[in-house]
Design a protein that fits this description.
The chain is mainly alpha-helical. It has 27 helices and five strands.
């Protein structure tokens, strides 16, 4: 980092972050107090940390209270567990475990937000100056789409992946093209991939743009070499640290494994060596050498690991496909246009604004900053396309869009403020801010919601949130400990708030138990009883209004849930009283 030149950014960055952190904490204070985690993955992350602090081995991330008797096969990295566990360990002696978990759950996402805001600000500073840097931090803090991943209790890994992707971009955007910046970009890339593969397309594109940039501009050689060295060294250190020895040679498609470590190491070695070859004196020679080298690595990986050719979900159990189609973040953004256009607009419009802004800045960039803007523009253009495959890919381009939009805003705001007449000056300033922040997509989404008439329908997540709230699940602590045949989306929250085990959670490596959980509610008496018995279940638990149970009633009018909701309890079940008004329906399995 250009320390002397960026020192003046730290104070405004901290102020903007503190204001955002305070607002997020106040808005979410009730959820923090109740430990009502926003998402199933956040609950599962807390369970992983609890289990580790409770004595489960570093290399064992499986959830042993889920999918009995084998336990649920998980692939999540311990890297994200470290800051959560560290804060709990430090604060528990003073405040107790319950408060320590809430402190960690609040602090860790806000820490990731600070990293993301800092990386966005540094990128904007390097490419467009100080005012753009401050605006980039403000635009990140003002984006509801981005903040949804950084609010308190969002302790799952997605926010750290976004932050690390932005760190890699900030490092690669260094106009001085230093070796050390390449090292930082490579380390951020390795860390993001150790956490998970959600940012894999973004990081591959960033690396490809860097290689292409070097082919055209040999001055990028130091940056490329540092990036390559960091990929090799970082992978060599991280792999044995975060992958247990028993899995070193297991070619998993959905987590860091030889499938990804091999190209990281060999691709990194190529990136480090190519700029040192004196014979590569022309763009054509550099392009041929790079294409031949990296294509060889890619072909070798495909030959060695053909089962992963279709990506991280290439080996997904077919039993999980119908469930995947119902997971909101796994749906394409196009699928929302007909049913929930406001969601498609809210998440999908801002990246296109960012592409336009990045293109404007690229056209205006000087020689030192042209590569940086090429990187931002290329990443935005390609990762925006990924939104059309899965909604979960939208946050990355939304964050990058904030950087590009901030640069254009920094260029236009002085012109708007220079307008002599007060009303036109205010109007022009407001137009710039509304048009270049996520406010425009949000206003457009609200308009689409009003026009579409979907404003009266409660989001499905509200129903699930009420079913997984700590207050809702509290009565389950009053019955003897057992194994619950559950609605799979409720599984992680049941683990967090009760002592019971569950048969399923929404994790794709356990497709058979998920399929059984889905089938249970649609099955006749004999089949439903057999499914529960297969897992040694002692209870059956439903919750009125959840998506899966509503679908079960529609799909199978004579199935288990349809009968239970109608008050027709089969002979093998015995109702367990729940508090008046509770959406839970609990049944003890007889015998």
């Amino acid at each position: 980092m250009d320390t002397d030149r960026t020192r003046g950014l730290l104070v405004p960055l901290i102020i903007v972050w503190l204001l955002a952190a305070l607002a997020l904490t106040l808005v979410n204070r009730a959820d923090i107090a109740a430990l009502d985690l926003p998402d199933t993955d956040d609950a599962q992350r807390l369970m992983q940390v609890r289990d580790w602090l409770g004595g489960q081995a570093w290399g064992d991330v499986d959830q042993h209270r889920m999918n009995p008797p084998a336990g649920a096969d998980m692939h999540w990295s311990r890297l994200v567990d470290l800051p959560i566990a560290g804060i709990i360990v430090v604060t528990e002696p003073v405040f107790g475990r319950a408060a320590a978990e809430r402190i960690a759950g609040t602090a860790v996402p806000l820490l990731a937000l600070f990293v993301a805001m800092g990386a966005a600000a540094l990128t904007a500073f390097r490419l467009a100056g100080r005012q753009a840097a401050i605006l980039a931090a403000v635009f990140i803090a003002a984006s509801g789409q981005i903040l949804s991943l950084f609010k308190p209790l969002r302790i799952d890994h997605h926010n750290w992946q976004i932050a690390l992707m932005l760190c890699a971009v900030a490092a690669l955007a260094d106009p001085r093209r230093r070796f050390s910046s390449g090292v930082l970009a490579g380390l951020a890339t390795v860390a993001a991939l150790v956490i998970g593969l959600e940012m894999l397309p973004h990081l591959v594109v960033a690396g490809a743009i860097l290689v292409l940039g070097w082919c055209l501009q040999p001055a990028l050689g130091r940056l490329l070499a540092g990036y390559g060295v960091a990929l090799v060294v970082g992978s060599a250190l991280a792999y044995p640290a975060f992958v247990p020895p028993a899995r070193w040679w297991f070619a998993a498609c959905d987590a860091i494994s030889p499938v990804y470590a091999v190209p990281l190491v060999f691709g990194g070695a190529l990136a480090a060596l190519l700029p040192q070859i004196d014979l590569l004196t022309t763009p054509l020679r550099r392009g041929i050498a790079a294409a031949a080298g990296f294509a060889s690595v890619g072909i070798a990986v495909l030959v060695a690991f053909p089962h992963c050719a279709s990506g991280p979900m290439g080996t997904l159990d077919p039993a999980f496909l119908p469930v995947l189609a119902r997971i909101s973040e796994a749906r394409s953004i196009v699928s929302y246009l007909g049913s929930e256009p406001e969601t498609a607009i809210a998440f999908g419009l801002y990246p296109f604004i960012g592409i336009a802004c990045a293109f404007v800045m690229l056209r205006r960039a000087d020689a030192d900053r042209r590569f940086g803007w090429s990187l931002v523009f290329g990443l935005l253009a390609i990762t925006t396309w990924l939104m059309f495959l899965q909604l979960r890919a939208a946050t990355g381009p939304n964050a990058l869009a904030a950087v590009a939009a901030a640069a254009v805003a920094a260029m236009l705001l002085p012109r708007a403020r220079a307008i002599p007449a007060m009303l036109p000056r205010i109007g022009a300033t407001a137009l710039v801010l509304v048009g270049l922040t996520s406010a425009l997509p949000m206003f457009a989404a609200l308009a689409a919601k009003r026009v579409g008439g979907s404003g009266n329908a409660a989001p499905a997540t509200d129903t699930l949130a009420s079913c997984t709230a700590s207050a809702t699940l509290a009565p389950l602590n009053g019955v003897p400990k057992g194994i619950i045949a559950d609605v799979f989306d409720m599984g992680p929250a049941i683990l967090v708030h009760t002592p019971h085990g569950v048969i399923a959670g929404p994790y794709h490596r356990n497709a058979a138990s998920i399929a059984d959980s889905v089938r249970l509610w649609r099955a006749g008496d004999d089949e439903a009883k057999a499914i529960a018995a297969r897992y040694g279940a002692t209870y059956v638990l439903g919750c009125v209004g959840t998506n899966d149970l509503a679908a079960a009633k529609k799909d199978a009018p004579e199935g288990l849930w349809a009968h239970l909701e109608a008050g027709e309890v089969p002979a093998w079940l015995e109702p367990v009283p729940m508090p008046k008004g509770s959406p839970l329906r609990l049944y003890r399995i007889k015998g």
